[in-house]
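Appendix B, record 7
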Amino acid sequence: MTSICTGTRDNPAPATPDTLPNACYWFTDPEGALCLSPGCMARIQDPDAQCLCDTLTARLDQLTGRLRDLEERHRYANVWWQALSSVVRDHPDGRAIITETRARTGR
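Structure tokens (predicted):
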């Protein structure tokens, strides 16, 4: 697995306020002190821990895709439900169908 961390303790990344990476990275401040800018909880708790930024980014991408799929399924189900409801309402036995449906679902 390739890490997206741009600097290491032994090879810190040059950084300015305009060029900060999104993930964990080591840098030297203007006075030459070695600093870590953690991008994930693992590094906040332990600077020597493995950076999890790429893992968290992958999980976020996966969950965002899953949410998009669920939203699309919900939109489709809503359109289908509206069409079905309209057909039942317009059917000559519509009231009987709705009454039976409520009885079967306990509503």
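Remarks on this record: The chain is about 50% helix and 5% strand. Confidence is low (pLDDT under 50) at residues 1-5.
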